[in-house]
Design brief:
By secondary structure, the protein is an alpha+beta fold. The chain contains 3 helices and 7 strands; from the N terminus they run H-E-E-E-E-H-E-E-H-E. 20% of the residues lie in helices and 47% in strands.
Length: 129
């Protein structure tokens, strides 16, 4: 990816994940993501529908919007390659610190960390990136 896109992905920008429901329809939700090791890391509820959806169908799309100019955006098409319990809250705290400047506040439920491997991507608004 070009440097301008990588720089945007490394910042705390708004993102939306789209997953595939059992009937084939898409479902999307706002998420926090981290760009790490050439892929995305996000967190989710251990009992939520999104977890069940990606366990059944791991293909996802994540659109990251430049908070300064929402017409600049990158959509990552990829695969959730792992779902792990974040028993020590290390991943969700890292994500929360990135976006909110403080640890994740809800310590009652262990979150699930999803690692998304990039298969392809497309951009809009980067002037030929």
């Amino acid at each position: 990816m070009p440097d301008a896109i990588l720089t945007m992905l490394e910042q705390a920008n708004p993102a939306v994940i789209a997953v595939v429901r059992p009937n084939g329809s898409p479902a999307s939700a706002a998420v926090w993501v981290l760009w790490e090791d050439g892929g995305l890391t996000t967190s989710m509820s251990p009992t939520g529908r999104r977890r069940r959806d990606v366990e059944r169908e791991p293909r996802v799309s994540v659109t990251v919007l430049d908070r300064a100019d929402w017409y600049r955006q990158v959509t990552i098409h990829g695969v959730v390659e792992s779902l792990t319990e974040d028993t020590d809250f290390a991943d969700v705290d890292r994500i929360s610190q990135h976006y909110d400047g403080k640890p994740f506040p809800d310590r009652d439920v262990v979150q699930i960390t999803a690692r998304i491997r990039v298969e392809r991507w497309n951009e809009f608004g980067f002037d030929g990136a």
